[in-house]
Amino acid sequence: MTADYLTLNRTGDKMPIRGFGCWKIDTKDAEETIYQAIKTGYRLFDGACDYGNEVEVGRGIRKAIDEGLVKREDLFIVTKLWNTFHSKNHVRAAFDRQLKDSGLEYFDLYLIHFPVPLHYVSPADNYPPGWYVGDAKSIAFERSPIHECWAELEKLVDAKLTRNIGIANFNCQAILDLLTYARIKPAVLQIELHPYLPQERLVKWVREQDIHITAYSSFGPTSYVDLTDSGKSYTSLLEHADVKSVAEKHSVSAGQVLLRWALDREFAVIPKSVHSGRMESNLDIMNIKFDAEDNKTLDSLKTNQRFNDPMTYGFNLPLFD
Q1: Average pLDDT by consecutive 10-residue portion of the chain (321 residues)?
Q2: Mind telling me which residues the site (Lowers pKa of active site Tyr) is annotated on (predicted)?
Q3: Is 82 exposed, middle or buried (CB count within 10 Å of its CB: 0-12, 13-18, 19+)?
């Protein structure tokens, strides 16, 4: 593909395909990291309530805008509704908190983070709330149906507080159910995608519904080594011999190969790095061209191994089964 953006349904907004993820950026580093990413050339930033750094990310964005590096309309800011705020009584308040924390007047895309309605936790008690209520050892669900939650997101669009809405970590059945009642169709589905887990059938079906795809965890287990045993037991795609052989062939890094693999499948990507050199290389992927042999090599890595699975964190929630 040659276009540097995806055109979203309904609004026609152009979402950059090369974005910057805000997960696991420490609050002490976030402001400067985002500011430097904007200077490097990133225009899409993917955040979430659950990442716990929206205030600092917002400061980095505001710094770049205030210094005239970019205008607000040059940026595409994504964030997500956390599981504990799915109730129709809590969506707007949660959103308003996120918008205030970010120091912005609107978001470009607002996603439901997981199709998982957890018991409400007041921000006054714990923010961001995480998966557990208080000292509980198991997750607690509440009766907050997605159709009510989605209707509240549609109201945010009507109020011009977010231009687009979408979903993350939804499977086909959850999406199909949503499409039976959605007044505003999701613009984007964000899911784990990499050569170990290409999810071809889901991707094909979602595209047929006119919903675009954002791929997260493009480097496979790398982000999960400190979180799950599966992250430790699988070879990092950045160190995989086959990925490195393709990288050497094209005189690029393994990370660039994995991001280009995603772009060739028309996914937006959201890698992150606090190092300026890797920021630049993760962005410099438009001119890499794979041949049939390269694609065969990368396609052969498929194992269907998923790393961001609630079951691997000890939650009794087989979300993707």
Answers
A1: 87 98 97 98 98 98 98 98 98 98 98 98 96 88 98 98 98 98 98 98 98 97 82 87 98 98 98 94 97 98 96 92 91
A2: 80
A3: buried
The CATH number of the domain holding residue 84 is 3.20.20.100
Which residue numbers belong to the known binding site for substrate? 113
Distance CA 166, CA 91 (A): 14
* Structural domain total, the chain: 1
pTM of the model as a whole? 0.97
Which residue range(s) make up the domain with 293?
A: 5-304
The position carrying tokens 């795809």 is 213
Q: Are 95 and 140 in contact (CB under 8 A)?
A: no
The active-site residue, picked from 51, 110, 196, 216, is 51
Residue 139 and residue 131: Cα distance in Å, rounded? 6
In a domain, 314, yes or no: no
Q: Record the tokens describing residue 260, joined without a space.
A: 């280009």
Token pair in block for residue 118: 């957890």
**Residues annotated in the binding site, as ranges?**
113
Rg over alpha carbons for the chain, rounded to the nearest Å, is: 19
Dihedral sign computed on CA atoms, order 120, 126, 129, 130: negative
51 belongs to the catalytic site: yes
